[in-house]
Design brief:
106 residues; 4 helices
Length: 106
């Protein structure tokens, strides 16, 4: 269950990272409200997941999910470059997340 909470927290991290772009410096009300809401829920779920997961593993997986998802959505939504080097680095992050999950005792 804690891995599920952590995964959802990571998805929400993607949401608030992308949401920051739409807030235009927190000058737009509804994107700002949604972004702050996603931030709060994401952190809360991360905290709940850390009840049993190691802090280093949970935090690294959370930020990894957020980083990978944000890069992918940046490519899709904002036409950011999808170079081989960028995609290779994303693959390394995914490998790191998988490795941490596979070697976690919780």
């Amino acid at each position: 269950m804690n891995w599920t909470l952590l995964f959802i927290a990571g998805l929400l991290e993607i949401g608030w990272a992308i949401g920051l772009k739409y807030t235009e410096g927190f000058t737009r009300l509804w994107p700002s409200v949604g972004t702050v809401g996603a931030m709060v829920v994401s952190i809360a779920l991360l905290g709940l997941a850390m009840r049993t997961l190691p802090v280093g593993t949970a935090y690294a997986v959370w930020t990894g999910i957020g980083a990978v998802g944000t890069v992918i959505l940046g490519i899709v939504l904002f036409s950011e470059p999808a170079t081989l080097a960028r995609l290779g680095c994303v693959a390394l992050i995914v490998a790191g997340i998988a490795g941490l999950k596979l070697t976690s005792a919780a």
